[in-house]
Specification:
Layout lengths: L2 E4 L1 E4 L2 E8 L17 H26 L6 H15 L1 H14 L3 H17 L4 H5 L1 H15 L16 E6 L4 H5 L8 E4 L7 H9 L3 E3 L4 H4 L5 E5 L4 E4 L3 H21 L16 E6 L5 H6 L5 E5 L13 H14 L5 E4 L30 H7 L1 H14 L5 E5 L5 H20 L9 E6 L2 H5 L2 H6 L2 E4 L1 H9 L17 H16 L4 E3 L10 H6 L4 E4 L1 H12 L3 H11 L5 H10 L1
Parallel strand pairs: 3-4, 4-5, 5-6, 9-10, 9-16, 10-11, 11-12, 12-13, 13-14, 14-15
Antiparallel strand pairs: 1-8, 2-6, 3-7, 7-8
Helix pairs in contact: 1-2, 1-3, 1-6, 2-6, 3-4, 4-6, 12-14, 14-15
The structure holds phosphoenolpyruvate and magnesium ion.
Length: 579
């Protein structure tokens, strides 16, 4: 039966493909009592399901050996095969079927709970994490028991179809893994439009809709789905007419995207000759290649915290240095703005779990995150500072500090940078002594009290994602208040415009690196505020460039000055339309 669901459009485009469920609703199984004489058959049914799940893993093992398959695939297959073969899981299920005469699905979930609870007691974070793997193995067996085996050979999908992840929620750490897998799109029941999960979707340029609320319980594995990431719509089991219409729309979008490629070599200049720098936001070193392909003027934001995710050990100084140097080299002398670790709130790294502030805090976004955490952990911060400084010898590297609010934080950070330099001199490492240090303006207090930033730093970068969150008191990850997350709120616009103007008055470079910079509907507004440096995902850069090339900066400056005088949202939207 066809039906559609609506959520928040967070990453444009259209994906058509089969659902791949990654949440645990499958674990909500029915419980029923068996007759004594049915127990042997149930035991046999369970053993056959375990064998079938084992065969699935065996088949996956073969896929993992194909050249180019992600290394994680074979590690996960080995681990899951081991868990499946462990009698601690399966013997307990057999006993429950025999002794309590309960159905195999129910017994499996009960036994899983028992094992998983024991894992919670472990001191070692790595072992605690393995809980997830046990749950996934149990899900695999349950799928067989419930008759939901993925019959890949019989799937109705054509090779053009995408794999669409359907989840209750995804963390930024989950989503970043999609970079090495071939995921066509995703939908989640929770989440807000500038959560880092959404940001990673945009950086992958895959269609995504979040905050769907009921998608997960209503969708089954392998359902045919259309994700319209531009309108925020998910269509389940579409009829042939709708499917054809969307296939057509998808190819039109692809055509439009390929036409934009003509702009790669064009100069990013307004009609009246103002040069506008368009830089790239990246999460991993390999993203630098995409930045180059679209002709970015450099990297305006390298979110280094992604180097710290999905691993149990922290990256050491050499590993970080190699990562930063590889980006510097890939950009061939163009500026690379490396942001120091912005961990905390929705960005979690399990290797830091026992130290990074209070994960159970009521308001982690207001807690010991980003620079606050780095200053509380100076040894860890120094490792990163030394790695960034060492890389500065190989390109034009700039250091960007997130979440600054207090003058004292700037002073302490600069002192630690000096200390890192002393240590590098002692160890005879080369670095750029004049490496520029900038601050993110993403807390209203910083925007309203720019003096120390202008006096002590070399450049500013406005993080509109957090600036909106903190100005409007809207959790950027919370879908229930997402309708109130408004980049065009007059208070937000005033803070951005004032920051740009104050920086320009003292000739300090200022950029916007939040999501507003990559939204082509806002390009003229920001140009009119005087902005000349934008940093965004590579996938958005050419569309923004197109807007720049059609803009008259002088005229926009007058119109935007008028727009900023209004504080009625309707009037602001009306004037924005006219830009
Ligand atoms: C921002 O807050 O706007 C920003 C660019 O940083 P992040 O999204 O990583 O918090
Ligand atoms: Mg931020």
């Amino acid at each position: 039966m066809t039906f559609s669901l609506h959520g928040q459009a967070v990453s444009g485009g259209i994906a058509i493909g089969r659902a791949h469920l990654v949440s645990h609703a499958i674990l909500e199984v029915a419980q029923y009592q068996l007759r004594e004489r049915d127990v042997p058959a149930e035991l046999l049914r369970f053993d056959q399901a375990v064998a079938a799940a084992g065969a699935e893993l065996h088949a996956l093992r073969a896929e993992a050996c194909v050249p180019g398959a992600p290394a994680e695939l074979s590690a996960f297959v080995d681990l899951h095969s081991m868990i499946l073969a462990d009698p601690a899981l399966t013997d307990g299920v057999r006993e429950l079927i025999r002794e309590r005469r309960c159905n195999a699905e129910w017994a499996m979930v009960q036994q899983m709970q028992l094992v998983v609870d024991q894992f919670d007691e472990f001191e070692d974070a790595y072992l605690r994490e393995r809980k997830q793997d046990i749950v996934q193995v149990v899900e695999r067996v349950l799928r067989v028991l419930l008759g939901k085996t993925r019959k890949l050979a019989k799937r109705k999908t054509t090779t053009d179809d995408d794999l669409i992840v359907v989840a209750n929620d995804l963390s930024p750490a989950d989503t970043i893994q999609f970079k090495s897998l071939k995921i066509g799109g995703f939908v989640t029941d929770l989440g807000g439009s500038t959560s880092h999960t959404a940001i990673v979707a945009r950086s992958l340029a895959i269609p995504a809709v979040v905050g769907m609320q009921h998608a997960r319980p209503l969708i089954q594995d392998d359902d045919l789905l259309i994700v319209d990431g531009t309108r925020g719509v998910l269509i389940v089991d579409p009829d042939i007419g709708v499917l054809q219409e969307y296939r057509l729309r998808k190819s039109e979008l692809e055509l439009e995207r390929s036409k934009l490629k003509r702009l790669v070599s064009g100069r990013s200049r307004t009609l009246d000759g103002e040069t506008v720098e368009l830089q790239a936001n990246i999460e991993l070193p390999q993203d630098a290649e995409r930045a180059r392909e679209v002709g970015a003027d450099g990297v305006g934001l390298f979110r280094t915290e992604y180097l710290f995710m999905n691993r149990d050990e922290l990256p050491d100084e050499d590993e970080q240095f190699e990562a930063y140097r590889s980006v510097a080299r890939a950009l061939g002398g163009k500026p690379v703005t490396i942001r120091s670790l912005d961990i905390g709130a929705d960005k979690e790294a399990r290797a830091l779990r026992n130290r990074a502030g209070n994960q159970a805090a009521t308001n982690p976004a207001l807690g010991l995150r980003a620079i606050r955490f780095c200053l509380a952990e100076p040894q860890l911060f120094l490792v990163q500072l030394r790695a960034i400084l060492r890389a500065s010898h190989y390109g034009k590297i700039r250091l960007l500090i997130p979440m600054l609010a207090q003058a004292q934080e700037i002073v302490q950070t600069l002192a630690l940078i000096d200390l890192a330099k002393i240590q590098l001199r002692e160890s005879r490492h080369k670095f750029d002594d004049g490496m520029e240090v900038g601050g993110m303006i993403e807390i209203p207090a910083a925007a309203l009290s720019l003096g120390p930033f202008l006096r002590r730093l070399d450049f500013l970068s406005i993080g509109t994602n957090d600036l909106i969150q903190y100005t409007l008191a809207i959790d950027r990850t919370d879908g229930t208040v997402a309708h109130l997350y408004d980049p065009l709120h007059p208070a937000v616009l005033k803070l951005i415009a004032q920051t740009i103007q104050s920086a320009q008055r003292v000739a300090m470079p200022v950029a916007v690196c939040g999501e507003m910079a990559g939204d082509p509907k806002l390009t003229k507004l920001l140009l009119g505020m005087g902005l000349r440096q934008f940093s965004m995902h590579p996938a958005q850069l050419l569309e923004v460039k197109q807007q720049v090339m059609m803009a008259d900066a002088a005229q926009l400056s007058l119109r935007v000055a008028r727009l900023l005088k209004f504080d009625e949202p309707e009037k602001i939207s009306e004037l924005l339309e006219k830009l």
